Amino acid sequence: xxxxxxxxxxxxxxxxxxxxxxxxxxxxxxxxxxxxxxxxxxxxxxxxxxxxxxxxxxxxxxxxxxxx
Length: 68
What we know:
mainly alpha; 434 Repressor (Amino-terminal Domain)
């Protein structure tokens, strides 16, 4: 899964810390999602999408290796 979180977050004017506080996680977790080291739960992904006023489809992209 590929994350578009960093580009969407910066376009919306949020720092990692600000977004983390809004969704109730650590800044390190936001960094891990952005760098592809951590896949968020559905609930967390929905919270992030809600705060950033975007869709899950825009926030995360699947590629064919995700099905294997």
